[in-house]
Amino acid sequence: MVLDAEDWQPAPEAGLHLAFRPVHDVITGRVYAYEALLRGPDGEEGDEILAQIPPGRHAELDRRIAAAAVYRAMDAGLGTMPARLLIPILAPTAAPAGASLAAATEAGRRTGLVPERMIFGIHDFADVPGQHLADLVDGHRRAGSLSAFVGLSHDPIGFTPCVRYRPEMVRLEPELVHGIDSSWSRRLMLEELAPRLRDLGIRVIADGVEREPVLQRLRSFGIFHVQGAMVAPPLPGALPPTRIVRSAAAA
Question: Which residues of the chain have pLDDT under 50?
């Protein structure tokens, strides 16, 4: 179904595979984490793939992604660097709260990646029932891992779970980040949102960073973790270096 019979082995050419892209820390000038991304044979992304798979198999998909992300990242050299691994949970309601955590930590036990270096990215978090979301965040925290709510947008509904369940991180939708150097409304939104998240102790990742003016505007908002075309595109089976040089990021 997904990858192949052994989660840590390369996927068949005609099947699904994992790519990785960096989360850049503009303060240190280094990669803070590598995000594992599910990709299809024709470049399909995770949500597209999920929609093509029967709901009864979503739990298996997430479990296998979690294990494969660890094995493939460690094969690609994650063990030789301090970066964390961002593991997606694409269908967070499909399985018991600890399913992806258990799969990833078992793979980590075999490869040497400790739970403290894992971040679990919870997709569609605003649609997850409250107790289940609380169990996810609490389970990751007790294991020493971090939780990231993936896909915070301009919709205020998404902010409420951040307040209530306090993940360590949230990732902004690219459409909220694009053009903030020239869009007054987007700047105003982030100027209000960033300090509120910071006051909650939640670190922000901005996705969709494509140009230097956007990067500098994010810095002015106190947002120091970024992804996007300016950082590096996803690379199948490998850990791409960041394209941002520290002198530019610190300007």
Answer: 1-14, 247-248
